[in-house]
## 1
Amino acid sequence: MFVCATLSAIMLVHGRFQKRAAKFAQEFTANANNVAQEVITLVRTVRVYGTEKQEFKRYANWLDKLYDVSFRQTVAYGGWSLSLNYLYHSTQVIGVVIGGLAIMSGKLTAEQLTKFTLYAEWLILSTWWIGDNWSSLMQSVGASEKVFRLMDLLPSKQLSSEGLKLEKLKGQIQYADVSFSYPSRPTVPILGGLNLTLNPNEVVAIVGLSGSGKSTIINLLLRLYEPTNGQILIDGVPLTELDIRWFRERIGFVGQEPRLFRMDISSNIKYGCPRDVSHEEVIWAAKQAYAHDFIMALPDGYNTIVDDALLSGGQKQRVAIARALLRDPSILLLDEATSALDAESEHYVKSVITKVSRDSKAKRTVVIIAHRLSTIQTADRIIVMENGNIVEDGKHIDLIEKGGLYSRLARRQNDDLK
Ligand SMILES: Nc1ncnc2c1ncn2[C@@H]1O[C@H](COP(=O)(O)OP(=O)(O)OP(=O)(O)O)[C@@H](O)[C@H]1O
């Protein structure tokens, strides 16, 4: 009984250790994989900066930690097996020695000693077997805790098709006292009580210094994040009450750095379009986005397989604009690229923006986040942002005359061009 009790005590300590070790092993493996994935994705940057050795060290650092925890796990298991062998065989030796003496003094028969030895063996081996399975179970529990935590999360409303579907999306967007902080930095306020109404069919440009919160306004409209306070209303209905899939189907979005999928260019333009589209419509969208000519110059035209690396930044931007226009969206969101486009690409992107803004047949609200102020001079309204607040709101001419932040930004860009 003493041996079984000792084995049980070791089993509990060993099981707890294996559970913790499994958690660490999983974490270190994930971190090592993250480094590998990051380096492969950013391989050009790593090569250009010659940081191969540093990255190798970063990867090796996590592998060393993994090795360390795996080594400890193996040593612990060795100790657990050793304790069985030690306790089991020493019990047998002690049993046979004491039992033998008892037989010689006539206190015990050989049959009783044999029975005792057999029962003791069964008991000890069964206790060990339970303990061994217990430690494996603890190891699995440690490794699967994170998976169960993820499984327990409630399904995101982002993926559901619940909520209101309006008869028609007119495109009125209202930010009512919206405050926001990113979940990763909850103490840093990005927007502080933003009040802004964009009317249907209006072309609105949002400008401001880098980091003033322009893209955040669009992220909230796309419901990639929820406001910390206040709410966003679409045609007077809270965004949270709308069917998010239905709403997003009616939005055309071109991000700062559009990404292409590894498939033919026609499929890239059709990507995410909620209706069946003909090849003629794809060509129409590409022409609207000034992408048709360069697509036709590719080896297989619209059937050319492209990926993120095959086209220039400006070309990808135009494919993304064609993708957005093909949906014939009620709300068009353009987040102009901050990265330097070559002069020709910039000219094309500017022309598309001007064309889209002036298309009186297409009834849609257009929101352009602009870094080059020359692009948005014809917008119906220009919103100027500073540190998460709107500091100016008006037409280009009025804002220039006002002599505030917008006129300073415009002057600075003109000076840069001189
Ligand atoms: N995912 C994120 N997590 C935490 N902070 C973020 C995140 N995205 C942006 N921020 C921070 O929020 C602030 C506003 O960022 P935002 O991208 O809205 O600015 P912006 O005006 O669009 O800038 P830019 O003109 O450079 O694109 C910045 O200080 C930025 O560091």
Note: The first helix runs from residue 2 to 41.
## 2
Amino acid sequence: MRAVLHIISDQQRHALALEDALLESAQGGADFLQIRQKKAPAAETHDLVRSLQARLAERAAKARILINDRVDIALATDAAGVHLAAKSLPIEAAVTLRARCTWQGLIGCSVHALDEALAAQAQGVDYVTYGHVFSTQSHPGIAPRGVTELAEIVERLRIPVIAIGGITAETVDAVLQTGCSGIAVIGAILERRDPRAATAELIERMERCAVRPRAAFSRRIDTRGSKDGKDV
Ligand SMILES: Cc1ncc(COP(=O)(O)OP(=O)(O)O)c(N)n1
Ligand SMILES: Cc1nc(C(=O)O)sc1CCOP(=O)(O)O
Ligand SMILES: [Mg+2]
């Protein structure tokens, strides 16, 4: 089991057209495309997800889609999961909602400290992203947290920890040495002219790492969000 690769969308940070860049990264082997369209109208994000799902299926690309923030869009598109950011619906509310419906996708969230990570785990998330590990254009002026704190969080949690923030092909080995379950990136893939090749190179480096993830994703990863796992 190798660590997973999440590609996160950003409306400002992409060299190719965003949808094309995401598809290229999926064809390069990305495991998750996390659709993070801050401030985009729901209809626009919904249409982007639907279009990506259709184009991924045409290409037989296996990447799963996670929706940032919008639980409603995750349900409506039967996405593989929802990622809760700092100002999203509280974890407890998202977990309760999932218990009441047929959608059974992943629920993940962003954390930035050990106590937040432990609280998120106790509230029932399936994974956390922890960052930012290195300096990142997305959060300028906030000090990076580094791999030592990442290693402590990985050690203390039983659920998968995905490292995020400034991770590149050059630094991925040091990140994976912590035993984290994956990495999430924007710039290392979406700001490249050839996201497919950049993804393939990053995955090759991930596969070469001798340290394996301490925690595996739950079985929810194997299906689309709905209980029967059928494709839409
Ligand atoms: C200290 C700190 N606070 C917030 C963030 C970013 O928050 P997040 O919920 O992950 O939202 P986006 O990253 O999607 O903007 C941070 N990195 N550090
Ligand atoms: C979206 C995001 N969230 C972070 C967090 O720490 O929560 S860091 C980050 C930016 C990731 O982009 P890049 O790989 O280009 O640094
Ligand atoms: Mg974040």
Note: The CA atoms of residues 28 and 197 lie 6 Å apart.
